[in-house]
Amino acid sequence: MAPTDINTARKFSVAPMLDWTDRHCRYFYRLMSKNVLLYTEMVTTGAIIFGKGDYLGFNQEEHPVALQLGGSNAEDMARCAEQAQALGYDEVNINVGCPSDRVKNGSFGACLMAEPDVVAASVQQMQKAVDIPVTVKSRIGIDDMDEYEDLTRFIKTVADAGCEHFIVHARKAWLQGLSPKENREIPPLKYERVYQLKQEFPQLHISINGGIKTLSDVKTHLDYTDGVMMGREVYSNPWILTQVEAELFNLQTSFSREDIVTLMIPYVERHIAGGGRAWHVIRHMLGLYQGEPASRIWRRYLSENAIKPGTQASVLNEAVDAMMTTRAKLKSREEYLS
């Protein structure tokens, strides 16, 4: 199947999540959804330009896929955007939302909301360098700069530089006193502020992010915005992507969770053959049976066995067998008691 057009895919995207949405995770997600837009973990310009790792590698099956880039030097941002385009990424996204100290000390992430001209300069330089879309992911505000007027000033400045697509996390970020985890939970969600933003800037593509857990929530937000980004809920319950396919993209899926396991086995085998460990891939699959009978057995079996050095891809089938055995025992017990 040909990759979905990125403008269609923006209706639903999976958030960039540090240490989670790596290339193995994205490959796994793509087996359950051909249409959603996937994002990499944030990669800094310093890592790309000076690092020795393969920070930009991805599987061709991941399309449409966007690189999330962290940085504030316009020339470096443009240089990295060029590399991303050359490798085949469908979009480059600028991180203006991460509140961690490491990001703040590097002068990128949420602290850049206080410097819209810096973000605008990066957008301009990047768009001169590439043909793929350059987008921005932000918060609704930071610290005491959290009035609606502060947000619109940021959006207008960056939009005037040429950015047409913003993903807005509907919480402010406290850059002093709260950890990244607390910044995902403590500042209140203000979805109405993102709705208002779409009304004020109807020409822009505005996606909403933050605290979204159900397909019902997604559909409600789509009444007021152009797209929805979901993060932690997808990671804990990846099967929700099949519901997204059916309900948002009108594509019914006929495969089972066991079919996904079967499809992942050769991928794990290739990773092991290349010198990797099974756990690098399998750790992203623990939520596959979330909400299903005996799903705890699946998670426990993999957590205890897949993490061991030398583990082979067959551990996935072993985990399925353990889960199915427990299900059969539970069913027999229920029938005995009925």
Automatic annotation (TrEMBL):
Q: Is this entry keyworded RNA-binding?
A: yes
Q: Which residues cross the membrane?
A: none
Q: Where does FMN bind?
A: 16-18, 68, 137, 169, 209-211, 231-232
UniProt keyword list: Flavoprotein, FMN, NADP, Nucleotide-binding, Oxidoreductase, RNA-binding, tRNA processing, tRNA-binding
Electron transport among the record's keywords?
Answer: no
Active site (catalytic residues): 98
Reactions mediated catalytically: 5,6-dihydrouridine(20a) in tRNA + NAD(+) = uridine(20a) in tRNA + NADH + H(+); 5,6-dihydrouridine(20) in tRNA + NAD(+) = uridine(20) in tRNA + NADH + H(+); 5,6-dihydrouridine(20a) in tRNA + NADP(+) = uridine(20a) in tRNA + NADPH + H(+); 5,6-dihydrouridine(20) in tRNA + NADP(+) = uridine(20) in tRNA + NADPH + H(+)
> What is the required cofactor set for this protein?
FMN
Q: Which domain of life is it from?
A: Bacteria
Q: Which family does it belong to?
A: Belongs to the Dus family. DusA subfamily.
PANTHER family, per the entry:
FMN-LINKED OXIDOREDUCTASES SUPERFAMILY PROTEIN
**What does it do?**
Catalyzes the synthesis of 5,6-dihydrouridine (D), a modified base found in the D-loop of most tRNAs, via the reduction of the C5-C6 double bond in target uridines. Specifically modifies U20 and U20a in tRNAs.
Query: What's the protein here called?
Result: tRNA-dihydrouridine(20/20a) synthase
**Organism from which the protein derives:** Planctobacterium marinum
Record lineage: Bacteria, Pseudomonadati, Pseudomonadota, Gammaproteobacteria, Alteromonadales
Q: Which gene encodes it?
A: dusA
